Every structure is written in structure tokens, then in C-alpha cells.
Predict the 3D structure of the following.
Amino acid sequence: MSTGARRILANTGYRLLADAGSKLASVAFYVIAARELGAEGFGVFTFGLAFVLLATTLGSFGQDSVLTREVARDKKLLDRYFFNTLALKVVLCAGSLAIAIGAAVAFGIDPETRNVLLLLGPAAAIELLMTTCFATFQAFERMEFTPVALISQRTLTAAAGIAALLAGAGVVTVSAIYLVGSVFGFALALWLLLRRVARPALEVQPARWPALMRAAAAIGLTSVFAVILFRVDMTMLAAFEPNDVVGDYGAAYRLLEATLFVSWSVSSALYPVFSRLTPTSVPPVGFIFERGVKLGTALTLPLAAGVLVLADPLVETLYGDEYGRAATALRLLAPAIALYPLCYVAGSLLVAQHRQRVMLRIYAVVAAENVLANLVLIPWLSLDGAALGTSISTTLVAVALVVFTQRMAGGVDWRRVGTGPVVAALTAAGVMLVLRDTFPAAVVAGAVVYLGVLYSVERLLYPDDARTVLDLLKRRGATA
């Protein structure tokens, strides 16, 4: 196995560790919050997070992607980008949050929701500063530091939040704890960067900001449309339905989000590599793209199959009977779980190869479609309509991205990408269906069967791909 392949898989592993560990802590926090706050209180918290993430969209206007792409090519450029990116994010987030929260207050939101927004808004902005540190780790391909910062932050937030919830704390106190956790996470990420990776010069030059914004414009606008696509359903649902329905949908959507770390991990590891390769390089960029999509698909398809078959016992086990309506919504979100890796990896390829305008057009059109679809689906099907709209829109994005990236990659062998994961997922789904009345047994048996069938199919049809992963595992075991 080549050094480049080992590095990609290792960095994917580091990002998987970071996001898996942090997601475990976050899921525990959200599950306890849903149970202790009730559907109405959890609806306020879920709405607050969706609102501030929409409001701070300009703060993540593609600056991190530009930093990673350019610094991956020339490490000396970190001095130009790092602190200017941080300062620009602060200015953009402060302005957009002031306008958005001010408008919400003017429209008459209740005092509790206002206080939640005032706490979660700065938290969202500070987490965007932390992602700039992660973008730098990514550019230097030193992603082993990402799990240290991210897991520490999420674990602190979850532990303190759960303790407060069990002691009877309300949604405002929980939001304050979330803010403290964000501050801690950014401070730790910055310390790791300065001590273990690089010390960028403390240069803040506002005169450079317009150029940075222009370079990031297409990526940033794509991010805006992506946030609209994946977040507007929650805010639109809140306009049509009471807080308890929003809480039910929030419970389902949090489980969808708990799977996204796979897509982020794979695309984060591949992005700096995509930035250096071309269609004629050795290896060609298309080869890495195909293997990246295959890895992401193999990791998420069993999750989607499990959600389809086991949505009801999963929701009941995690949230309790109060959230029964979330099960159907979760099942309708399953296609999005399976397609996110393709969307993320293809998007990373387009940006790395300076084809971000293609992605901008795709997300702009589908974001408009999503808003219009929600205007029809939510009044008709309530939270199930919001979930259906998300999966429809994700499918449209995936299909469009495949059309464009396949040309750039010089053709993709989709049989090689999908045969093993699809056969293994279908087999595992059948086993889980038989055992669905015994939830723990269904989960364990499904996982074992999936891994066994996937390994058998890959070993038979594509032994080189299976050998690459096994070689990495053996290497990690030998050095552990």
C-alpha cells in the first residue's frame, strides 16, 4: 500500500475518531435533554440551534476551505490566512447575529427563546473559530489533533449539561453550558495548533479581507445554500407547528446528524489530497475519488439500513414513548444518511479542483426547491413532510454532483463502489428485520453480518481494495 493511501486512511481514521467520539457525547447529551426538557423545551433548544446556525452562515463563508486548499500547497501561506480568517469570522458573525436576533425579538419571540438565542449565537460563532484550527490541521495533514480538541469539548459539554439537566436545569442553563463548552474547545484547539503544528504570524490586515471573501465567494455561497437546504426545514416547521412537534422532528434529525461524521471524516481526509492531484497525476485524482466514495458508502449504508428497519425501537430506546412520532420521520431521512458521503466527497473534489461554481449552481437550485417543497410538504405531512423534503433534496444534489464529478474523475466504476456495500447492507437488513423485536440482538447481528458479507464480497471481487484496508489495520496494530 502506498504512503499516500496510508496517509488518507490514517487521516480518515483520525477524523472518524474525532467525530465518532464527539457524536457519542453529543447524542448522550441530546437524548437526556430530550427526556428531561420534554418535547416543548427540547423544541426550543433545537429551534435555537437551527436559527443561530442559519444566522452565522456568513461566518463560515468558505474561508476555511480556501485556507486548507492554499496552505496544503504552500505552508508559508498560513501567515497570510490564519488570523485574518479568524478576525473576518468574528466581524461577520457579530453583525449577522445582531441583525437576526434583533429581528426575532422584534417579531415577538418569548423571553426564554430570546435568552437561548443570545447564548447559542456566540457559541455557534466560537465553534466556527475552532473549525479554522481544524482546517489548519487538515492542511498540514496533522488531523490527529482534531479528535483531542473535539472530543474534549463535546465530552465537557455533555457531562456538564447532563449533570445540570438531571439536577433540574432548564433550557437556558443548558444553552449557557453549551457556550462554555464552545469556548473551551476553541481554546484547546488553538493551543494544540500553536504548540504542536505551526505558529502563524499574528497578522490581521482588514485590507486583505475583500480578497479573501472573493476567493471564498463561490464556496461561501454554496455553504449558505447548503445551510438553507439542511436547516430551513426546522425553522419552517416551527412556523407551522407547535414546539412539541419541532421537538419530535429534532429528535429524529439529531440521529441523522449523528451519522454525518462519516461523510465529514472521509471528505476532510481527501480534500488536501484532491488539492494536489490532477486527472493525469500519479495516482490520478479520479482513482482517489472513486475509493473515497466507496469508503464513505461502505461506512454509511449499514446505518441507513438500520434506520429503515429499526427506527421504532431505536427512537423508543433513546427518547421514550413521548417521541413516537419521530420514528417515521427518521425512517424518511434514511436516504439522506446513505447519500451524504457522495455529496461531501464530490463537493470536496469540486472545490479542490477550483470547480466550486458548479457546486454553487447545484446547491442554489436545490435549496430553492427545498424551500418550495417544504411549503407544500410541511402543511400536508407535518414533520414527516420536512423529513421527506430533506431526502428528496439530498437525492437531487447527489445525482447532479455525480454527473459533474464523473467527468472530472474520468469515469467512475460504480459497480466497484457499490456492489459490496449494497449486497452487505441488504443482507444485514434482512437479518435485522427478522430480529427487530429484540433490538440489541438485531443491532449486533446486523453489524456482524454486514461486516462479514462486505469482507467476503470485496475479497472475492475487489481484493486490492480489501487488502488496502487490512494492511492499514495491521500497521496500526503493530504500532499500537
Remarks:
- The chain has one domain: 3-412.
- The radius of gyration is 22 Å.
- The mean pLDDT is 87.
